[in-house]
Specification:
globular; alpha/beta; single chain; 376 residues
Length: 376
């Protein structure tokens, strides 16, 4: 099922719906190159009621304080996707060294990929990937079978036995891909996975979940704060920049989601008991809201291209745990839809002044349900 892009109803159409309204200046030193150790020692900016925003400043906490900031009966909804070794380096007989970023499987062992140098990848070109030392070298081959006009990528058919999926051998040939703004990281691969990652398929981590430790999850449960899971395999739709001046015309790339029946049941039970639904990350938001676009939230497996920006009418999500996002990004627009664009940019300035760390390995923000804007 393909979700329709929702039309904005914002009063402030000049800025809420304009790409230029989502700019801010970030000192380069504020971009986190490594995660906090331990994970739950990151900073946490807590957003309260918009009515008190002018008189009561946001609260500065440490992420491990989360159980004290939520209420018994609240439900955290988390994305259990797992990042795959989607970056591969190989060579061709015509263009020498090449870099490939797998995006999604279109059919058996045929993957959409972003490739460098892209212009030299013509239909029929063969790419060879190798692993291991001389004398014990393994080889993987792929052939360019199609171009993809939407992404500028290529469809690569990998040469493997019918019964062997590419995911089974990716660990031998591929690497976990870090975002391009992380240029000097010493993080281990497992530090770019949530501790509850289970379903392989993402090419980027759902980074709001990186702050949780097993001990913190157990403490939350002991405090009566429950946990449920959805799956959204993070692809280029999540982090691809918005390039159109009128953001209402931006088209999101589809991403695969699963909202299982037991999670829907937990959400309904939580709501019936007066608890609150707190999404962990913007990907959890898109999955839940995407599964509710035909009316009430229902179990759902399929793809969504839901684009959330100011004026969006919320269906499920009441609060949000999220990292700090890039300027002009669809993620910045999604969070603006929850608390208002101007207010969000003010909070970002507060975070910069208070020396928070930004982006994937950075610190976090907790938007409590009472922090959600009434007028959007």
């Amino acid at each position: 099922m393909k979700q329709k892009i929702l039309q904005a109803e914002s009063q402030d159409i000049n800025l809420d719906c304009s790409l230029s309204g989502y700019e801010y200046e970030l000192p380069p030193g504020r971009i986190a190159q490594n995660p906090a150790v331990p994970r739950d020692s990151s900073k946490l900016l807590v957003v309260n009621s918009p009515e008190t925003a002018k008189t009561i400043p946001p609260l500065h906490h440490i992420f491990r304080n989360l159980p004290e900031l939520l209420k018994p009966g609240d439900l955290l909804v988390m994305n259990n996707t797992k990042v795959i070794p989607a970056r591969l380096y190989g060579y061709t007989s015509t263009s020498g060294s090449v870099e490939v970023l797998l995006v999604e499987e279109r059919r058996h062992n045929c993957w959409l990929a972003l490739v460098k140098p892209g212009k030299q990848f013509k239909i029929g070109n063969e790419i060879i990937f190798t692993s291991g030392e001389q004398g014990n070298k393994q080889t993987l081959k792929a052939t360019v079978v199609e171009s993809d006009s939407e992404t500028g990528g290529r469809l690569l058919q990998f040469e493997l036995p019918e019964q062997v999926p590419l995911l089974q051998v990716l660990g031998t040939f591929g690497q976990i891909p870090l975002p391009p703004y992380i240029t000097a990281s010493t993080a281990a691969d497992e530090q770019y996975q949530t501790v509850y990652a289970a379903e392989e398929g993402a090419i980027a981590a759902p980074t709001a979940g990186l702050h949780f430790t097993p001990e913190l999850l157990e403490k939350l449960r002991s405090c009566g704060i429950n946990q449920a899971f959805i799956t959204l395999h993070v692809g280029i739709g999540t982090f691809r920049p918005v390039e159109v001046k009128d953001v209402t015309t931006h088209a999101m790339h589809e991403e695969w989601i699963e909202v299982p029946a037991d999670t829907v049941e937990q959400i309904r039970a939580t709501q019936a008991a007066g608890g609150r639904i707190i999404a962990v990350g913007t990907t959890a938001v898109r999955a839940l809201e995407g599964a509710a676009q035909l009316g009430d939230l229902q179990p759902f497996v399929g793809k969504t291209n839901l684009f959330i920006y100011p004026g969006y009418k919320w269906q499920v999500v009441e609060g949000l745990i999220t990292n700090f996002h890039l300027p002009r990004s669809s993620l910045l627009m999604l969070v603006s839809a929850l608390i208002g664009r101007e207010r969000l940019l003010d909070l970002y300035q507060e975070a910069i002044t208070s020396e928070y760390r930004f982006y994937s390995f950075g610190d976090a923000m907790l938007i409590l349900p009472e922090g959600k804007s009434i007028k959007l």
